[in-house]
Specification:
By secondary structure, this protein is α/β, with parallel strands linked by helices. The protein has helices at about 20-40, 55-65, 90-100, 120-130, 185-190, 205-210, 235, and strands spanning about 15-20, 45-50, 75, 80, 110, 140, 170, 180-185, 195-200, 230-235, 250. The protein has a single domain (about 5-250), classed as Rossmann fold. Strand 9, helix 6 (about 205-210) and strand 10 (about 230-235) form a beta-alpha-beta unit. The longest helix is centred in the N-terminal third of the chain and has 21 residues, at about 20-40.
């Protein structure tokens, strides 16, 4: 494994400005597909961490059409809300409904966070799940209006950035409901070959501007040796879609629908799985 947390050398934050939300979703879908192919080319499994919230929902829907070796996927979750299994508020429920129920990833390779046990017990259980798991291949994250990512919130809330941070954290008193959650730590989220953060909507502009201005918002606490790639819709990035001096900013043109997704028959088949919970 690579060095943990503060011992790791962090790469740059790269901003990729997309003209529309649909362009962002297509670009993200293509990057997920590419990361999976790269993992398979090196003879391994593809370990991906999923984000919750609204922004990745259509990305997950796009992936249903992906022609891939689903049996070699290993799925984890960056955070979860402490509500009952199957509750509509859960991040895993959204991912199952949009994508995971519709593809042939083995159920034992989908590692949900048992947040229904409560923050402390749920975090401890997920630490056991993550014990011995090497670096992820791809971590997907989103950005909240307050600058949070996963369930790492601003203020006095623990983010788990240090070298000795546990892999999963209990979250109490979150500033948005539900107040109790479980989250991977910033250090564990950063131990990945790629970190891809998705930002859509004008309501995120203030958080983006604060991050670009050097404020240590929670999203900035996730540092990766290879750097962090932020796919950001133009309205969230700001006027002109141009960066300040020294920023790594790449305007990305409107791609074709589902650009980067390997089309063709879904030879792994569709199945409406009932064993997800």
């Amino acid at each position: 494994m690579k060095p943990k947390g503060a011992d790791a050398v962090a790469g740059p934050t790269r901003w990729h400005v997309l003209p529309t939300r649909s362009a962002l979703e297509a670009e993200a879908s293509g990057r997920v597909a590419s990361a999976a192919r790269n993992a398979f080319a090196h003879g391994g499994r593809f370990r991906i961490v999923l984000a919750g919230g609204e922004t990745p929902r259509n990305v997950y829907r796009n992936l249903v059409a992906l022609d891939t070796e689903w049996a070699r996927w290993e799925v984890y979750f960056g955070d979860e809300r402490c509500v009952a299994r199957g509750d509509a508020e859960r991040n895993d429920r959204m991912a199952f409904d949009a994508w995971l129920d519709r593809v042939a990833i083995p159920r034992e390779a989908i590692h949900v966070i048992p947040a229904e046990k409560g923050p402390a017990a749920g975090a401890e259980a997920y630490r056991r799940t993550l014990a011995g798991v090497d670096d992820f291949d791809l971590v997907l994250l989103g950005l909240g209006e307050d600058g949070h990512t996963a369930s790492l919130f601003p203020g006095a809330h623990e983010r788990g950035e240090g070298a000795d941070a546990p892999d999963a954290l209990p979250v109490f008193g979150a500033p948005k409901p539900p107040p109790e959650r479980v989250s991977m730590s910033a250090a564990r989220l950063g131990r990945s070959r790629q970190v891809l953060l998705l930002v859509a909507g004008e309501s995120k502009r203030d958080a983006v501007q604060r991050w670009r201005g050097g404020e240590k918002i929670p999203a900035a606490s996730v540092r990766c040796e290879a750097g962090v790639d932020v796919l950001v819709e133009g309205v969230a990035f700001g006027p002109g879609g141009k960066g300040a001096k020294g920023e790594l900013v790449t305007p990305v043109p409107e791609p074709d629908e589902l650009a980067g997704i390997a089309r063709g028959s879904r030879k792994d088949g569709y199945r409406d799985r009932k064993d997800r919970y």
